[in-house]
Design brief:
46% of the residues lie in helices and 9% in strands. With 182 residues, the chain is of the alpha/beta class. The chain has a four-stranded parallel beta sheet with strand order 3-2-1-4.
């Protein structure tokens, strides 16, 4: 290793990758790692200039746009039954990982500002997508929206993907939807 902490576990030697479609998943239940989804929406659901969508009071709404759009499509078009699982308190073992992620965000924010000043909009976009931060307000908004949509959600004691995996192992849901492998 080069001195950097390596995250995750290489799963390719033990898992066979299989292509599927939403149509093949029709009617199945999923425990979805909410934190990863919210981070994705904050990264990608942005205006052309890279800023987040907001309401008339300046409150961030990008996560709500993504959550409403994706979830309603999965539920209406494919009859998927999602259960969103939110992260609880981080394990002390994850403290170094969280701090490393914050350093990356701070560096990306600084590089975004520099790229904007240089009018390098392509680089600015590539950096701004790394700066989204899931706040308590964003979490509360997401939970409220899911409740209004009639979509179940729960708070895990620690990592959401671990709770989701436990739910799948018990048979509470058919599968886990997460991009987090650490």
């Amino acid at each position: 290793m080069t001195g950097k902490a390596k995250l995750g576990v290489p799963l390719t030697p033990i898992l066979a990758r299989e292509q599927t479609s939403f149509k093949a998943l029709y009617g199945k239940s999923f425990a979805i790692d909410a934190s990863i989804e919210l981070h994705q929406f904050l990264a990608l659901v942005r205006r052309r200039d890279g800023t987040l969508f907001t309401d008339s009071n300046g409150k961030v709404t990008s996560h709500l746009i993504g959550l409403l759009t994706r979830t309603s499509r999965l539920v209406t078009d494919y009859q998927l039954r999602p259960v969103f699982v939110f992260d609880g308190r981080p394990s002390p073992l994850k403290r170094a990982t969280i701090e490393a992620r914050r350093r990356v965000q701070r560096k990306a924010q600084a590089e975004y500002v520099q790229a904007l000043a240089a009018r390098d909009y392509s680089k600015a976009w590539s950096k701004v997508v790394m700066t989204g931060r899931v706040t308590g307000e964003i979490l509360a908004d997401a939970k409220r929206l899911l409740s209004l949509m009639g979509i179940p959600w729960l708070d895990a004691l620690e990592d959401g993907e671990a709770q989701a995996s436990f739910m799948a192992a018990r048979g509470d849901v058919w599968a886990v939807g997460s991009k987090d492998y650490d």
